[in-house]
Amino acid sequence: MSPERLKKPTMNDVADRAGVSVFTVSRVVNNAGFVRDDTRQRVETAIAELGYVPSAVARRLRSSQYHAIGLLMSDISNPVWMATIAGIQSYFSDKDIGLVLGNDRSDLDEERRQLKIAFSQGVDGIIIIPLRDESRAVVEEIVRRGVPCVVLARSGDYGVDQVHADYRAGAYTLTQHLLAEGHRRIALLNGPRNLSVARERLSGYLAALTEAGILPDESLISWGPYTVAAGAERAHEILLTCPDLPTALMAGNNSIALGILEALGEHALEVPDDMAVACFSGTPTLYSFLTVMDAPHVEMGRLAAEMLYERMQGYDGAPRVHVLPEEMRVRPSSSNVSTSSKLNSRRTWVLGRLDD
């Protein structure tokens, strides 16, 4: 998305097109003061040709009154996003600004519908966690309407302020940790292919393997939804179809990790004795024995809120991007493969299932 494509027309642009002053355009837009009929017609024609949308936020700026901001996201039941919401809400609550929450339920049409609802509520700004790459059109619509916007937890050429974690570096470090523990066959049960986070995770994972002189095995890389069911299904597939089993599984998020643990339990495999498990975006309450690479969700939410408020206050500089480091929490689930006394017998048992 080029900056030119996202550059929204301003009142100055309308004034130049109509051959009038900005003051005259303001009178037409706000229906205040006398404007000759022919002049008004020229201004209205310029507005239509340029697609200029008067900002409700700009009008509120003059009185410094705000009432709410919108947050568009998916799967609000995920504890990870609850932490992010807490960061956003704590910032705006101090300013007596409410939060309008839209849950897109992982559906693009619902994402657009939630955006319309946010507009109908007259929100003063929007923080969006885009559902997938196709959500750029949703961000474009927010920009076109002149509403301040911050993209959270996603990277890419959105043309607006962004806050996200260094997902590639996190995957690189977590893979390095598993390699240091003696694992050489590490499976990555990744998120959706059309999501920047998942692609960055793959890039970091591949970089660590390559640096260690290990040729990546495509059979150990899978893409899919960030759901418990998807995690369980893909873990089952690896255990039942992979002739050379991995010794460690990396989950794209905490939901996938839960699915992996379910599948391992059904195969009577224990963590970490029979299989090491690590995940991204863990939570303190999610099986405290799991090794995780976690983004600073609360801080990301707070920073996104701060950037949005600055835009609401009139900051009009170039789009800013804040990239925050992730933190690895090493726990027993990723222990050294050499300590697994039952690994070989369990691997023989699982492979035996292929002959049933």
Please, could you describe this protein's structure?
- This protein is of the alpha/beta class.
- The protein has 3 domains: 3-46, no CATH class; 61-165 and 296-326, Response regulator (Rossmann fold), CATH 3.40.50.2300; 167-294 and 330-355, 3-Layer(aba) Sandwich (Rossmann fold), CATH 3.40.50.
- It is built from 14 helices and 12 strands.
- α2 (11-18) crosses α4 (37-50), α6 runs parallel beside α13 (297-312) and α9 packs parallel to α10 (196-211).
- The N and C termini lie far apart (52 Å).
Concise synopsis of the structure shown:
This protein is an alpha/beta fold. It is 45% helix and 14% strand. The protein folds into three domains: 3-46, no CATH class; 61-165 and 296-326, Rossmann fold (3-Layer(aba) Sandwich); 167-294 and 330-355, Response regulator (Rossmann fold), CATH 3.40.50.2300.
